[in-house]
Write a structure and sequence with these properties.
Elements (H helix, E strand, L loop, with lengths): L2 E4 L4 H9 L3 E3 L9 H11 L3 E4 L13 H22 L3 E6 L22 H15 L4 E6 L2 E2 L6 H8 L5 E5 L3 E2 L2 E2 H16 L5 E4 L6 E2 H12 L4 E5 L19 H7 L6 H13 L1
Parallel strand pairs: 1-2, 1-3, 3-4, 4-5, 5-10, 6-9, 7-12
Antiparallel strand pairs: 8-11
Helix pairs in contact: 1-6, 2-3, 3-4, 5-7, 7-9
The structure holds NADPH dihydro-nicotinamide-adenine-dinucleotide phosphate (NDP), dtdp-4-keto-L-rhamnose (TDO) and magnesium ion.
The site of NADPH dihydro-nicotinamide-adenine-dinucleotide phosphate (NDP) has 26 residues, from helix 1 and strand 4.
Length: 280
């Protein structure tokens, strides 16, 4: 019995496949727009645990497509969690810092009040509620600012922009923890093993450290990649987007350390590793 992963092409799905011989289902095998098909895929595979690494992640586009985003980010995980509960196997789901409203100046804890500012955040929050409501053994791992050498993420966006630009304006008032996809994959695999061995579960935060602004992250990317791009700090108000984003996106990861002995990765090491891969 292997681990079943929903998602094959995304950042996290790829990292999971690289680290363990999981069965990964792409869109063609299991479309999250068809929740019943996702449940059927779990029953057919009879895995020892299920990790959902698929999601609707286009934050700005979600403002126009909230119904679609909610089907993928909430109805599908609901069906997956129910199927897992029925089979008595653990379900591991991934959520986001965007369930919080970004107020205050201390890192968010798992039991802090949520208040998403945008449609993507609302769809992910609905997914969390559905996974809990299914009543099975589960983990909801909230992470933030995921990056890797592949796929659509802030790192690959910055490198693409640096091909044609020698200066960029980047928001400096949104703070969070950039998180390497490989570290989330490793964490989920450790948690899956623990859950299969009977250890609890629940909602946990896992984000890279130390916290930084998007502008600071951009500077680290250009320094690491040896690209001569000048980054100018701007406030969020100077970078209008369809979706509002939280200012304080920092996640307090103490609970994961206490319960599972897992410490947040330093994103600077993950950045170096990703840049090395990109240069190879
Ligand atoms: N990216 C980020 O910065 C953050 C992500 N997260 C969460 O982490 C998890 C992993 O995200 P990440 O790997 O970055 O996401 P990506 O955007 O890299 O990948 C999304 C994956 O979901 C798949 N997918 C989307 N729609 C469907 C569908 N209808 N049916 C089947 N598969 C579908 C995509 O497949 P296809 O290639 O076919 O489109 C792709 O494999 C998600 O739960 C996300 O919400 C949390 C915090 C930050
Ligand atoms: C390209 C660009 C972006 N920005 C800003 C916009 C935004 O506030 C910030 C990051 O841009 P992105 O579009 O990469 O961010 P975004 O897509 O909102 O990233 C989020 O994705 C979802 C899936 C999550 O769950 C979150 O944790 C988070 O990672 O940088 C600039 O200021 N200048 C720029 O040139
Ligand atoms: Mg994005």
């Amino acid at each position: 019995m292997s681990l079943l992963v929903f998602g094959r092409t995304g950042q996290l799905a790829r990292a999971l496949q690289r680290q363990e011989a999981v069965t990964a289902l792409g869109r063609a095998e299991a479309d999250l727009l068809d929740p019943a098909a996702c449940a059927a895929a779990i029953h057919a595979a009879a895995p020892r645990a299920v990790i959902n690494a698929a999601a609707y992640t286009a934050v700005d586009r979600a403002e126009q497509e909230e119904t679609l985003a909610t089907r993928i980010n909430a109805a599908a995980p609901a069906a997956m969690a129910q199927a897992c509960a029925a089979r008595g196997i653990p379900f591991l789901h991934v959520s986001t810092d965007y369930v919080f409203d970004g107020s205050g100046d201390r890192p968010w804890r798992e039991d802090d009040p949520v208040g998403p500012l945008n449609a993507y955040g609302r769809s992910k929050l609905a997914g969390e509620a559905a996974v809990r409501a299914a009543g099975g053994r589960h983990v909801i791992l909230r992470t933030s600012w995921v990056f890797s050498a592949e796929g659509a993420n802030f790192l690959t966006t910055m490198l693409r922009l640096s091909e044609t630009r020698d200066s960029l304006s980047v928001v400096a008032d949104q703070l969070g923890g950039p998180t390497p996809a490989a570290e989330i994959a490793a964490t989920l695999l450790r948690m899956a093993a623990a859950l299969c061995a009977g250890q609890g579960g629940g909602t946990y935060h896992y984000a890279g450290a130390p916290a930084i602004s998007w502008a600071g992250f951009a500077r680290a990317i250009f320094a690491g990649a040896g690209r001569d791009v000048t980054v100018t700090d701007i406030p969020s108000s100077a970078y209008p987007t369809p979706a509002r984003r939280p200012l304080n996106s920092r996640l307090d990861c103490a609970k994961l350390r206490a319960d599972f002995g897992i410490t947040p990765a330093d994103w600077r090491a993950g950045l170096s590793a990703a840049l090395e891969l990109l240069e190879a």
